[in-house]
Design goal:
single chain, alpha+beta, Uridine Diphospho-n-acetylenolpyruvylglucosamine Reductase, domain 2, Uridine Diphospho-n-acetylenolpyruvylglucosamine Reductase, domain 3, Alpha-Beta Plaits, 4 domains, 7-stranded antiparallel beta sheet, 4-stranded mixed beta sheet, 15 strands, 19% strand, binds flavin-adenine dinucleotide
């Protein structure tokens, strides 16, 4: 039997009593996810300020076998950073908030690298890098809340993958605390270092199941030339893919290729008060951003000839055209709330590009006949074959509608999680994308590094062998 008072007193003596939150009103925002679809009870929220404090908190939790959930900005969309509705066999968890781990070391001008605390937001890192003439290659709409630690733990993608790759491509070193309180620190960022297992690579994308990431060494790049944005009205995904291939002139660097369907643009218009951005209402809009010096010369006019296009060559117009896309993560949630429905279902999938059009059409067809769907839309990162599926209407616990999407994706050889991770939401669907041998290998890694199973139980790997 755990002596909760003794546990909380020990945690308070480690991080300071003001950083151990137990008041339900203070705990509540940490215990429910951003989309308000998932959440559950937590013993407390603990907010360490240093790596040593994280280590002491984990060692103390292990002593009583208390489950631990690392949490950064709580913008995750797969219930990885919040408690389960019903606590698992180990009982209610402690949430470790990393937001006080805000170390920002000087940028190494020679290597173009920087060491950053896990709790620094992506937005703060962008501003910090930009002020020194550098750029960090990962960006996403939740930038002002999502933390560097959270983006590493989920191997976040975002809107710049086409130019820079996923988060894993930026991580050149890591510091993390393992389940027993041991600290692994490998922050040198050497370009060549073949000394054994790649722990940074392993912890990246581990979703808090192997340890708490406390700092990372990240690769920066020099900013691209000024950019131009074209918003193009189109009918099909195949057309979008053709334009992505042909519209940029040879040598122009594509910074983003984002597609949004008509429903999503119309919802964004309602939310922002902006007008329809093109002359006609097309089933899809394609946003292409190209580093071409900012004058629009990077687009091949002969390819765009005959299309309904808006071109933005100054910062205000570029931001306006981006607004329709950037609001997509919010508009279905707002629509569901306005119609008294449960929070929208948000599914993040990737599909081999050659099947994208067919799969998207099939999903639309299936949703059109699914009972209770009020709004359905698709948007996402075209060049990566990654689309986000939003469904407003079905009950929050309606997993059949999720399964309809994930099952469709798996028949096309796609992934049930392109970039948001697996979390609790999809852990029992992992077998749709990974083989039994792969899952067994992951379970062996988990058991070796976290033998008591206290690190984020139920995330990534299912607690029970549930299969859909
Ligand atoms: C509007 C909106 C747009 C988004 N767009 C994108 C997008 O384009 N691409 C994309 O990939 N994601 C996107 N996301 C999802 C989300 O922003 C990312 O998953 C992000 O990486 C989560 O960061 P966070 O700090 O909020 O992590 P949290 O939500 O707090 O946690 C996410 C997961 O990481 C774990 N974790 C957090 N910090 C640590 C740590 N220090 N150590 C170990 N584990 C940790 C948690 O346990 C959890 O499993 C979007 C979300 C929103 C709300």
């Amino acid at each position: 039997m755990v002596d909760t008072d003794a546990l909380l007193a020990d945690l308070a003596s480690t991080v300071g009593s003001e950083h151990v939150l137990t008041d339900p009103d203070l705990v509540a925002p940490y215990a429910i996810d951003w989309g308000r679809r998932w959440g559950g009870p937590a013993l407390a929220v603990v907010r360490p300020a240093t790596t040593a404090e994280v280590a002491a908190v984990l060692a103390r939790c292990l002593q009583d076998r208390i489950p631990v959930i690392p949490q950064g900005g709580n913008t995750g969309l797969v219930a990885g950073g919040v408690p389960a509705e019903v606590p698992g066999p180990l009982g209610s968890p402690i949430i470790i908030s990393t937001r006080r781990l805000t170390r920002l070391d000087p940028i190494d001008e020679v290597s173009g690298q920087v060491t950053v605390g896990a709790g620094v937001t992506l937005g703060d890192l962008h501003r910090y890098a930009a002020a020194a003439g550098w750029e960090y290659g990962v960006d996403l709409a939740a930038r002002d809340s999502a933390t560097v630690g959270g983006t590493v733990a989920t191997n976040a993608g975002g809107i710049r993958v086409i130019a820079h790759g996923m988060t894993r491509q930026q991580v050149v070193g890591i510091e993390a605390v393992l389940a027993d309180g041991g600290i692994v620190e490998h922050l040198a960022g050497l370009p060549k270092d073949n000394t054994g297992y790649d722990l940074a690579g392993l912890l990246t994308g581990s979703e808090g199941t192997l340890g708490v990431i406390t700092a990372v060494r990240l690769r920066l790049s020099r900013p691209h030339a000024a950019s131009s944005v074209a918003l193009i009205g189109i009918d099909t995904y195949d057309e979008a893919l053709r334009l992505l291939r042909d519209a940029p002139r040879p040598g122009a660097i594509v910074l983003a290729a984002e597609v949004t369907d008509r429903v999503g643009v119309e919802l964004a218009m309602e939310m922002s008060g902006l007008p329809w951005p093109l002359e006609e209402r097309h089933p899809l809009t394609l946003l292409l951003e190209i580093a071409d010096g900012g004058g629009g010369e990077g687009f091949d006019e002969s390819v765009l000839d005959g299309y309904d296009v808006t071109l933005a060559i100054n910062a205000a117009d570029r931001a306006r055209l981006w607004t329709y896309r950037e609001l997509q993560g919010e508009v279905y949630t707002a629509y569901a709330a306005a119609h008294g429905a449960d929070p929208a279902h948000k599914l993040d999938i990737s599909i081999p590009l050659r099947h994208l059009a067919e799969c998207a059409d099939l999903l639309r067809e299936r949703m059109a006949t699914y009972a209770g769907v009020l709004a359905f839309g698709v948007f996402g990162h075209l060049g990566d074959g990654n689309i986000h599926v939003e469904i407003a209407g079905p009950a929050a616990d309606d997993e059949d509608v999720d399964m309809l999407v994930l099952g469709t994706v798996s028949t096309y050889g796609g992934s049930i999680s392109a970039e948001h991770g697996v979390g609790r939401a999809k852990s029992h669907h992992l077998h749709l994308t990974r083989t039994p041998t792969e899952i067994a290998a992951m379970q062996a890694i988990k058991a070796a590094l976290d033998p008591e199973g206290i690190m984020n139980p139920g995330v990534l790997l299912p607690l029970e062998s549930r299969r859909d």
